[in-house]
Design brief:
There is one protein chain. This protein is mostly helical. The protein has helices at about 5-10, 25-50, 55-80, 85-100. The protein folds into two domains: about 20-80; about 85-110. The structure holds magnesium ion. Magnesium ion binds near residues 36, 39, 66 and 69.
Length: about 110
């Protein structure tokens, strides 16, 4: 499935509609994205704390589901901002290719 098709198809599961402004619907997506990312981190925390860093197939599936939740919020927030998901993905390569060309792939800082 193409990313933009995915982004369009999941819109039917959104309880809200984008207004073009920063509002409760958009805040729902921002908080949802961070919340779901926290759920991914929590899965790993529990694997470290309770399972000696061992991961079962069920753990992997559970993490995949949470990554899907992250992906849903990411795609939906991008839709609210009128940013096609393929543009979001393309910007990753644009940034990383630029850092590679400048020899700044390692290090820190958003603009390097
Ligand atoms: Mg979740």
């Amino acid at each position: 499935m193409e990313l933009n098709d995915f982004q369009a198809q999941i819109a039917k599961y959104d309880l809200f509609r984008p207004s073009g402004k920063i509002d409760m619907a958009m805040l729902d997506k921002v908080l949802g994205l961070t919340g779901e990312a926290g759920e991914v981190a929590d899965k790993f925390k529990k694997l470290i704390r309770d399972n000696s860093c061992e991961m079962t197939a069920a753990d992997r599936t559970a993490i995949a589901k949470e990554l899907g939740d992250v992906f849903w919020y990411l795609a939906t927030l991008a839709r609210y901002l009128d940013i096609p998901l393929e543009e979001v993905a393309g910007r990753v390569f644009e940034k990383l290719d630029g850092r590679t060309a400048r020899g700044t792939i390692a290090g820190s800082g958003d603009e390097r």
